[in-house]
Amino acid sequence: MYLLLGLVLAAMLASPSARAVDARSESASLRLAAKAADAMDRGDFLRAQKLYETAIVANPGNAGAFTGLGEAHQARNEIRFARKYYRIALSIDPADRHALSALAQLDLEAGNRAGAEAGLRKLRAFCPACEETRKLSRALGSGASDPSSPATDP
Which of 38, 61, 76, 130 is 20 to 30 A removed from 6 (C-alpha atoms)? Predict the structure, then answer.
């Protein structure tokens, strides 16, 4: 208990320069992830992978960078790694619709319809009108506004 209290007090008393380093790291991570997305758009998947990895080093809490890293691995047909990074992204941000959609699509491609349907239920809960939700719904052959599907997945 005293350790927790000490950590909270230390965080509250941290100098502005210490907090600025964190803000700079977060900003750097976002810039690197944007450069990685540009590399993905150009088809330079290995460069994108390296940029996403660097973005994650700068800010390990950047769920979007983990999703992008998953996309880079998926584009290079490294499906096991893609799944790993999508799951990490979702552990950081369970509402990351890009990671949810990509993981569900991979499940569907692997013949895991139940996994894909669970992903669709989550997408519907977080973003019922998103393009990712509609696309996955079409891929599963169900209506995007199917009311019979539960809103959440336990």
Answer: 61
What is the distance between the alpha carbons of residues 45 and 132, in angstroms, rounded to a whole number? Answer: 22
Burial class (CB in 10 A: 0-12, 13-18, 19+), 69: buried
Per residue in 127-143, pLDDT (tens digit) is 999 999 999 999 999 54
Phi and psi (nearest 5°) for 150? Answer: -65, 150
Residues in the chain: 154
Helical H segments across the chain, by residue range: 2-13, 16-42, 45-58, 63-75, 79-92, 97-109, 113-126, 131-140
CB burial readout 36-68, b (16+ within 10 A) else e: bbebbeeebbebbbbbbbbbbebbeebbbbbbb
Q: Is 151 helix (H, G, I), strand (E, B) or coil?
A: coil
pTM: 0.78
